[in-house]
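Obj.: predict assembly geometry.
Materials: sequence records (below).
Method: joint structure prediction, all chains together.
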Amino acid sequence: MTNIMYMKTQITLNVNGKNRDIQVDPKTPLLYVLRDHLQLNGPKYGCGQEICGSCMVLIDDHAVPCCLLRVDSVVGRTITTIEGLADEHGTLHPVQQAFVQEQAAQCGYCLNGMIISAVSLLRQNQIQDEEMVKMLLHRNLCRCGTHTRILKAIRSVADMLETN
Amino acid sequence: MMNSKKRIPPYSRRDFLKTTGSVTIGFCLWDSCSSPLLEDQEISDLPGSLNRHPNINAWIEILEDGRVQVLTGKIELGQGIRIAVAQVAAEELNTDINMVEVTLAETGRTPNEGYTAGSRSIESSAMAIRYAAAAAKEKILELAAEKLSIDKSQLVMQNGKVRAKKSDASWSYSQILEGAQIEDEVQLPLQLKSKSNYSYVGKAIPRKDIEKMARGKQVYVQDLRFPDMVHARVVRPPNYESMLESFDEQGVKSIEGVLEVVRNGDFLAVIAEEEYPAIQAAQFLKEHASWSKPEIFPANESFDEYILNLPAEIQQVKTNGSTEVLKTDKDIISAQFEKPYLMHASIGTSCAVAIYKNDQLHIWSHTQGVYPLKEAIKNMIGLADEQLQITGIPGSGCYGHNGADDVAADAALLAMAFPDKHVRLQWSREEEHAWEPYGSAMIMKLNAKLDGSGKITHWSYDLWSDAHSSRPGGNPENLLPARHLALPFVKTGSGGRGGAYRNSEPYYHIPNMNINAHFFNGPLRVSALRSLGAFANIFAIESFMDELAVSSGKDPLKFRLAHLTDKRAKAVVEKIGELTKEEKLASGEGIGYAFSRYKNVASYFACAVKVYYEENSGRILLKKMWGAIDSGEVINPDGLRNQTEGGMIQAASWTTMEQVTFDKDHITSVDWGTYPILRFDNIPEKEVVVIDHPEEPPMGAGEAAQGPTAAAIANAVYGAAGRRIRKLPIGGSMQ
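Observations (raw structure tokens):
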């Protein structure tokens, strides 16, 4: 017999500004809860080892991978996915807007992690620091080679903030 | 909504607008053409995909609400084909681009255009759609004239409507067609819009899918969800030839949420209600299954010696004059280059959804070829043609034949074993890294002789390579799970070989030349990786050209120019010289150059790379890259630039860091730690210049940057560190 035990319990998560009740085994990584229970597309499976950045979400204001993060460890925290960045009228967040403006994607599979990372930098007032941007984005892999455009998009947000 | 198809009588040749403005497309030097852009173009040759699917409605449908539905047999891979085909259709039909919808490859729905590969989508699909749209325009005008009893010359098409010149009256295209589609064949002669009147083509029209990605909308096959969908995971063996001896069936079935355990020979998988339990169950089986572990990889040998000692079939690729002197002459310059196995390594792992219900199997896949995959899966399972449908949905970037087809075959088998529900299967990172078909390792040996003036007089080139294409092509043996079934499909051939000698012939004028390809059957699973053999061949040729330039004391760009005869080739090389002429080099820095014309018939590309050699660590830092590309007519300059920039960065990653590794009985490159790729800390500045030739046909561009970038980096390392790079990746060579 196995030692893999599933014990579904009710968990309440705060996702994109709403409390959501979910029946799930508390060991389940947040990624599968977001995708399979809450039908969100933003966070994506990339490696399951927290080293590619595809699955990033904001926990409070910090970009973190959620492919190994137990769902019960984020109860009571504020979880924001890329779907929760636009305002209530659907207007894109400035970082999302910059990525669209710069056409900073090819296949776009990594875009979730790139945008979440950039928003995290913005919320921590570190977006003007190019070295900090590169350092934080170091956690995010892109296979299409869109890096330069991604940096350009983030720089344009920083420039806009400076001008304002 | 367009089921009420009505046959419209084919139009006859004499009904075409007569025009005097004729352009000969094909052989027109860009700087000697008389202004062909100003006149409507009368075309005398139809592009490839139209020969197989000549009917207008195979490519273009007019919807009742005024939208134009474009059907392409190609799939979006991140290369931007969706916007490019929309641009050409909107252009010819004078329709707002926002009114153009694109349907990507789907069996039974879109034309069969084979694979989305070889940088051919603009040349084949976009051109077919351009011509079909132009033919549709003529037909709509003709019908309008008839219907409205207005002379055709008094009608124009503007903003998605037919308008009468002398009144304000206008009719939508669907009003003219009365809901029917245009079934006529695209025929010659054909009138295309004058290029000087373009409003979409040649402009950087933004892709619409990027906003969807930025919002986290459903874009990818990985995002598909169906009611009651179940989740599967395959349990892979230790290696290609392992056999399943036993597994704990009771144990895995006792895991809550597990619905089915599927075993067929050495193919083992689990199906569960939810995704995470499926992953856990697969992990359990990994730990509770016993497999044979034959030693099939040459782990302890020098790999180049191993390859050179494999039995090989030799094919002469090219011979010109005599190269006998290279065997005896003392003043011969020689070098041997090596390129390891490389992987596609998509960021998103391969995924498919399949359902078998009422004797029908439907698969959603990010395959590059829905039709060839359909044939292969049909033959694997034994279905009739009408029982199988494959819908193409974009996935993560693939850069060639990765696990997309394999996972679709896995999902097909599981859907057959567990009917009536949608079965979703996404590979694990380890599966993606260890089981995808790799780009073959290659070895290249070169010899050359120079004359007193620094011209190459003799050149010999021998390459060793495995196959570069083992795409499905209707053969189940090319689908991973088919080899592991109780009645397995055994691999009989080694796959398509032509790709091995792609770009093995230098684009330079050399009077005596001899080129041979040596084909081996290597130990690793191989297939098409972006640019196929061109990457290694151009790396070797352009590295060697740099060595020859140094030997003859010539500037590397001038040395290349002295051997080039094609004006457009010279132009990209000169452009790179111009872009880099002010560049100053600090201590430890070097700059390297390279050129090629992809496949010797497609895009021209020259590049320069500046690197810094960090002596203490042996690390190569990429400082700046310059690229100049000429792809003929450019449909979307931003798309072309994006592809070229991406190609350069990806090639830099291959060149500096990547190599598939293995032990005697398993692949050891199984994740991003054991197969690292370039990250943000080594991303250089970049400058890409597009040389637009609207008067020329468009040429494939997506793979043009791969080879030259590798050589330019290697040549820059020579400048910075004084060391010739003969073996990739450079990271390994420098330590």
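Conclusions so far: The two ends of chain A are 63 Å apart (CA to CA).
To do: check interface contacts against the pulldown list.
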